[in-house]
């Protein structure tokens, strides 16, 4: 007997796993037909794919064996033969330990920054130190390291550098632009709106082209800015415009009454934004923010049009420079696709973890 006002326990399901699968897969004749058709297709396709990828594949860098197996199995020997050129591009071969160490340091810092334990004031100082060490290793010219110009940087280190710095620089800029678009000052609101609409109205390729080729035309005679910096600024400004709209959507979802309540207890504008509005707004748009971050990572593949050869560009260089291995470009594309997938999947899982943590805080 239940007391008035007390909640009753949810009814228990007595259906087992097999019963649930039967209802899901063979609930009616249409569902059963779709299940059987899809199952037959998978039984036909999956063994052939596995045979091409694994069983009939050539794993050693044997060009003759790869040509003999062409059409029947994959030639992963092209990765064994060209992986250093794919991962590090035109960086001097004997010095490729430097971008390896620099990339591991930067990726370790990114992973540490995603952990709550490291969310301390000294994390900003650590970022500055690691970035200095990164550029020292990559560029050289000090501590006995030979100088390597930025136009020879490439591969995975360049992809990680551009995506990481673009995300780090674009996020605070996007915050300011999103707040500016909701400002009561018409000049600030119009300026932020103009920036967002102009940048979002052109593709990233156009932004990179302008940053690389047209921007130097407006510089004083004799003054030049490194192409890597120009490309980084272009990607950052482009990403910040899209990210600002995502954050603005979260700001609009915060009830206006909370802002009014903050004003009644004497909080200033910036105190209200920092303590009340922004925490709620950012929490509501975590998936969209992570989508923007993933897009930034993938958009770095476009920098090859301005002669900066990141992961995709360095793969093209590695294979186009050797006609013997060029027919096996598909396997090289699958290799870099797995790298991109691993990075994007890790970012996606971290987004899910953040969402779960935020949901726990809301239930308390």
Topology overview:
Blueprint: H1 17-25, H2 29-55, H3 63-69, H4 77-88, H5 97-113, H6 122-139, H7 155-181, H8 186-200, H9 204-214, H10 227-253, H11 256-264, H12 269-284, H13 286-299, E1 309-310, H14 311-320, H15 329-363
Helix pairs in contact: 4-7, 4-14, 5-6, 5-7, 7-8, 7-10, 7-13, 7-14, 8-10, 9-10, 10-12, 10-13, 11-12, 13-15, 14-15
Which keywords apply here?
364 residues, MetI-like fold, globular, 2 domains
What's the short version?
Helices cover 70% and strands 1% of the residues. The protein has 364 residues and is mostly helical.
Overall description:
The protein is 70% helix and 1% strand. The chain is built from 15 helices and 1 strand. The protein has helices at 17-25, 29-55, 63-69, 77-88, 97-113, 122-139, 155-181, 186-200, 204-214, 227-253, 256-264, 269-284, 286-299, 311-320, 329-363, and one strand at residues 309-310. Helix 5 (97-113) runs parallel beside helix 7, helix 11 runs antiparallel to helix 12 (269-284) and helix 14 runs antiparallel to helix 15 (329-363).
Give the C-level CATH assignment of the largest domain: Mainly Alpha
- Give the overall pLDDT as a whole number: 87
Label the structural class.
mainly alpha
- The total of helices stands at 15
Structural domains: how many: 2
User: Span between N and C termini?
Assistant: 30 Å
- State the fourth-level CATH superfamily of the largest domain: MetI-like
Instruction: Give the tally of β-strands.
Output: 1
**Could you say what the CATH architecture of the largest domain is?**
Orthogonal Bundle
Percent helix range = 55-70%
H/E topology pattern: HHHHHHHHHHHHHEHH
Taking all Cα atoms into account, the compactness measure Rg is: 26 Å
Spans where pLDDT lies below 50 across 5 or more residues: none
CATH topology of the largest domain, what is it called? MetI-like fold
């Amino acid at each position: 007997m239940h007391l008035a006002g007390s909640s009753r326990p949810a009814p228990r399901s007595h259906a087992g796993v097999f019963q649930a699968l039967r209802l899901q897969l063979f609930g009616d004749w249409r569902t059963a037909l779709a299940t059987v058709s899809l199952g037959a297709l998978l039984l036909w396709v999956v063994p052939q794919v596995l045979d091409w990828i694994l069983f009939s594949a050539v794993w050693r860098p044997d060009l003759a064996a790869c040509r003999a197996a062409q059409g029947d199995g994959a030639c992963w020997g092209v990765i064994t033969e060209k992986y250093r050129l794919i991962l590090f591009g035109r960086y001097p071969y004997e010095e490729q330990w430097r971008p390896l160490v620099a990339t591991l340091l930067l990726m370790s810092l990114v992973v540490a920054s995603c952990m709550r334990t490291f969310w301390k004031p000294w994390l900003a100082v650590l970022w500055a130190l690691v970035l200095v060490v990164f550029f020292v290793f990559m560029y050289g010219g000090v501590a006995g390291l030979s100088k390597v110009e930025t136009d020879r940087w490439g591969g995975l280190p360049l992809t990680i550098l551009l995506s990481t710095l673009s995300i780090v620089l674009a996020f605070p800029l996007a915050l300011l632009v999103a707040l500016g678009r909701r400002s009561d000052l018409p000049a600030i609101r119009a300026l932020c709106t103009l920036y967002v609409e102009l940048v979002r109205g052109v593709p990233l390729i156009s932004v990179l082209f302008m940053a690389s080729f047209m921007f130097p035309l407006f510089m004083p005679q004799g003054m030049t800015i490194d192409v890597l910096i120009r490309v980084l600024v272009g990607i950052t400004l482009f990403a910040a415009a899209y990210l600002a709209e995502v954050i603005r959507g979260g700001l609009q979802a915060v009830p206006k009454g909370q802002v009014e309540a903050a004003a009644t207890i004497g909080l200033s504008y910036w105190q209200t934004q920092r303590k009340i509005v922004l925490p709620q707004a950012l929490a509501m748009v975590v998936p969209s923010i992570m989508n923007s971050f993933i897009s930034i990572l993938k958009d770095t593949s476009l920098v090859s049009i301005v002669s900066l050869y990141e992961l995709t560009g360095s793969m093209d260089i590695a294979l186009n420079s050797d006609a013997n291995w060029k027919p096996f470009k598909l396997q090289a594309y699958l290799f870099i696709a797995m790298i991109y997938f691993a990075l994007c999947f890790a970012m996606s899982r971290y987004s899910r973890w953040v969402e779960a943590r935020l949901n726990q805080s809301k239930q308390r």
